[in-house]
Amino acid sequence: MVKLTDKKIKWAVTQVINKCESTEVVAKIYGVSRRRIQQFQGGSKMAKKVFYSSMDGVQICALMHEAIGTPKGNVVLAHGITMDKDEDADPQAGAGIGAFVQLADALCNAQYNVLRFDFRGHGESGGLQEEMTIAGELLDLTASMDYAKKCWPLSTALVAASFGATSSVMYAANRPDIPCMVLWDPALDLRKTFLEPILPWGKQSFNAQGYAFLEEHGYMLLAGFFKLGRPLIDEMRRIQPLGYMKRINCPVLTLHGDRDTYVPCVVSKKYARCNSRSEFVTVSGSEHGFGRPQDRQFVIPRTVKWIQRFVPQSMSSTAEEFLREGGG
Fold it and tell me: What is the mean pLDDT of the chain?
């Protein structure tokens, strides 16, 4: 490994700050330890792994990233189904670094604390895959938001990817204290994504063979490995995230790839502007999950800038706006 001079390390740090690259990516590319890069960023600490209980006692695992400099607020990251707190560590993107790892670094550089956690049945959190439900994920998200605000008593925004958006819009619809939210490729229509899929990814699992397997075993295999239990599939028939979107009063930015073969982009485009302060942005040429480097270079800076527009913002003022717009 080539030893870099301090001058070259400082140059590497500018790639982190100016291009929203992950410190882990830069460290890998330039052969520098992540800790060394962070020293030049201003002495930020390594991510701290924590465990806490969900609202029903299931153990949740999370990583906490402290802001570089004086924190402006907090951001909680909610991943998609079959993923974990890294959110899709695609070897073709970001030198094998998950999108949420890169986003967390960009947010820390912008002076935000970040908590990214594993939903139950995913990653290092407790619970079985086949026992995971939307109601359970809502409990996990609530516990995670509460934990972040307990550790860092600041205004806390929310970023959710794919199926993580389902519980997130349900949460936000009933929480006037959220300053803003960002949705990546959100699963807002569960019928068109899962039960009666209109895109190739869902059709691979939700078909006659898949439903027959469900009847025989009590669960269905999503993407060939993730067990979807009958209770979750029953919930998908009852819960319509689009209805919750209409009740959200905070500013929402939705970013969705127009080449998504997992979750319909047309649904997001039609329904994402849930209030006058919300925006929808098409990510041209992007597949689900923003796997290409150019996709992340597009969505991560926009996500950070959106949060910078609305955080810090006092919880009391957010609640006042909620009431003015007819909430409650």
Answer: 87
Residue 73, token pair as written in the block: 């607020």
CB atoms under 10 Å from CB of 285, counted, come to 12
Residues 130, 133, 136: CA angle, nearest 5 degrees = 120
As a three-state string, the secondary structure of 178-212 is CCCEEEECCCCCHHHHHHCCCCHHHHCCCCHHHHH
- Reported as a single tens digit per residue, the pLDDT across 34-87 is 555 555 444 445 799 999 999 999 999 999 999 999 999 999 999 999 999 999
Chain-centre distance for alpha carbon 258: 19
Query: Which structural domains are found in the chain, ordered by start?
Result: 1-43 (no CATH), 46-319 (3.40.50.1820)
Which residues sit opposite 61 in a β-bridge? 51
- DSSP run (H or E) holding 16: helix 6-19
Q: Are 197 and 206 in contact (CB under 8 A)?
A: yes
- Structure tokens given for 209: 């063979």
How many angstroms separate the Cα of 264 from the Cα of each of 133, 188, 198, 202, 238? 22, 9, 8, 10, 19
